[in-house]
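Task 17 of the worksheet. Students: predict the tertiary structure of the chain below and write it out as structure tokens. Keep your answer in the requested format; marks are given for formatting as well as content.
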Amino acid sequence: GGCSALGAHHGYLADLAGASASCVVTVLPACYAITYLVDGEVFKTDSIARGASISVPEAPVKEGYIFSGWSEVPETMPAMDVVVTGHFEADGIGALSADGLVDVYTLQGVTVKLQISVAELRYALPKGVYIVNGKRIAIK
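Model answer:
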């Protein structure tokens, strides 16, 4: 961001004899760290100037899980370091028995597929959350 930008401000100092001397004061914008954690590990760190808008990084990917989002992220960088936590939700397909056929319903109980193999679930269903054999399953 704008953390490396320099701004020069000119000013004048008066000494006791009434003569003046010029000086240049270099001002750096106040920058703070924003750290994105996923599973307790640092996923990404940025240095952002106070007041600058914050845009979150692309969602991380983890096999067998769906990224459910970042914890609260301020719109603009405050005058302090910020830690944001990413959360995953198990897609649940791995918890199902790999053999046999299952019935799939929406969260509202509407039938989506009947007698589909567990192996086909990930490919046959659009992204979303379903009820499979009485369990809440997320397809990513």
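Marker's comment: Strands lie at 7-14, 20-27, 31-38, 41-49, 65-70, 82-90, 101-105, 111-117, 128-132, 135-139. The CA atoms of residues 33 and 99 lie 49 Å apart.
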